[in-house]
Amino acid sequence: MKTVGERLRWARQRNVWSQADLSKLSGVPIVTISRIENNRFGPPKPSTVRKLATALDIEPAWLLYGLWVIHGQRSAPPAEGELRRLSR
């Protein structure tokens, strides 16, 4: 996953949530979520990233940059290749 939008969509779908569900849980407007997921949005504000990451229970660094974070209570989801390997 190369973009913030791809990672956001993946994390949202992992929870089987609609964009409306994520909007309600995060307080981020649905139009903003849609624009981020469709890469029609500049870099999201730090406050937006925090709200989305908190609602999705993921690390903000993973959402923004795809960084794998192993410390703390939350951990980033596995990388795409790792998911394929684990599903075999």
UniProtKB/TrEMBL annotation:
SMART domains named in the record: HTH_XRE
Q: Which InterPro entries match?
A: Cro/C1-type_HTH, Lambda_DNA-bd_dom_sf
Domain HTH cro/C1-type: residue ranges: 8-63
For this protein, the record's Pfam families field holds:
HTH_3 (PF01381)
One GO MF term on file is: DNA binding
Protein name as catalogued: HTH cro/C1-type domain-containing protein
What organism does the UniProt record list as the source? Nitrolancea hollandica Lb
